[in-house]
Amino acid sequence: MTKNEFRDLTAIKSPDVTVIRVDSLSNTNDRTLIYGYTFDGYFFHLYIQSQTFYKLVYQKDGQLVDYSSSTAIAIDEVISIKTGLPEKCDYEFCMRIRECGKTMRFNHYDDSYNSKEKFHGKLLEEVKPVEYN
């Protein structure tokens, strides 16, 4: 998301919708949708891959804390994180959140970040699975 797109995001208000579906997006290409941090200090990475949403919460060392995958995600699951990093979040997906009448907390926009990568966080195959004793 660019800085101008981030400004546009804050100006929208609409009726409440509780879920965003993959098929409601005009761009269903593989990419990061939301990247940020939880209140517990974990990384939060929501991405779309092969027409499926993947939500990962993981520690700094890559240890998986929480995971889900689906073709739909509850908006409250996404906006409940501590903060999103706007330069690493997807404009269309964030606009869908706003159009659904919800808001998300964002950190300050980092002008120095200039990556054209599709993914800004770890993918499921890159995190360490939870080990049970």
What does this structure look like?
This protein has 133 residues and is of the alpha+beta class. The chain has one domain. The chain has three helices and seven strands. A five-stranded antiparallel β-sheet has the order 5-4-3-2-7. A two-stranded antiparallel sheet has the order 1-6. The radius of gyration is 14 Å and the shape is globular.
Characterize this entry briefly:
The chain has about 130 residues and is of the alpha+beta class. The protein has helices at about 5-10, 75-80, 90-100, and strands spanning about 20, 30-35, 45-50, 50-60, 65-70, 70-75, 85.
Task: Give short descriptive properties of this protein.
133 residues, alpha+beta, five-stranded antiparallel beta sheet, two-stranded antiparallel sheet, 7 strands
Shape descriptor: globular
Order of helices and strands: HEEEEEEHEH
Number of DSSP E strands? 7
Distance between the termini: 42 Å
Largest sheet: 5 strands, antiparallel
| Structural class by SSE content | alpha+beta
SSE topology sketch:
Layout: H1 3-9, E1 19-21, E2 31-37, E3 43-49, E4 52-58, E5 64-70, E6 72-74, H2 75-79, E7 83-84, H3 91-99
Antiparallel strand pairs: 1-6, 2-3, 2-7, 3-4, 4-5
